[in-house]
Design goal:
The chain is mainly α and 225 residues long. The chain contains eleven helices and no strands. α1 packs antiparallel against α4 and α5 runs parallel beside α9.
Amino acid sequence: MAIWLTGCGAIVVIAYLLGSFPTGYIAVKQLKGIDIREVGSGSTGATNVLRTLGKGPGALVLVLDSLKGVLAIALVYWLFNFAPSQNFIPPTVDAQVWQPWLVTIVGLAAILGHSKSIFLGFTGGKSVAISLGILLTMSWQVGLATAGVFAVVVAISRLVSLSSIAAAIAVSIFMILLHQPLPYVLFGIAGGLYVILRHRTNIERLLAGTEPKIGQNVETPEQTA
């Protein structure tokens, strides 16, 4: 049992480190030579990269950040497919019960890593793109439905932050409507609330009417020098 718990713990740590990998920071540093945390919203996520460098780099970071979430959950599926053949799962462990819970914990660890990266002094993004990757791997139906809400709201409002908040609220609803396991429902609630909390400053700007819309670029340090 100790070996099994150690393996599960190791995957949680790896998921956090995967989430922590600072794709947005690296992309902007390599392409522009600046620290994206000092530009725009200060986030390392795809939206701030989009506003800073444009559509291409923004889309690249979006895809890479989503893949971090996919890989984190895929590790759990790999463990439960690998473990039986290696007699790694103790007889007392019910894989059907453990897997959803471990998926949930790993998903939350990856989200935390993305927003509190150990490589960036515990700063980071707002965990939207990585959450999408996690949801698509956890339950593709919920992932697609949530992405649909995001797409509709962003098409109407042209506000990524508002769309992210709407999607974060929708996750829990879709988890319940699509009869997902209890751990996934709890993930939807906890993950959704966390993403909303990460958008506190955006909410303030939305209420003040100053939140930038898609297409409004931010000035980089070299542009203001």
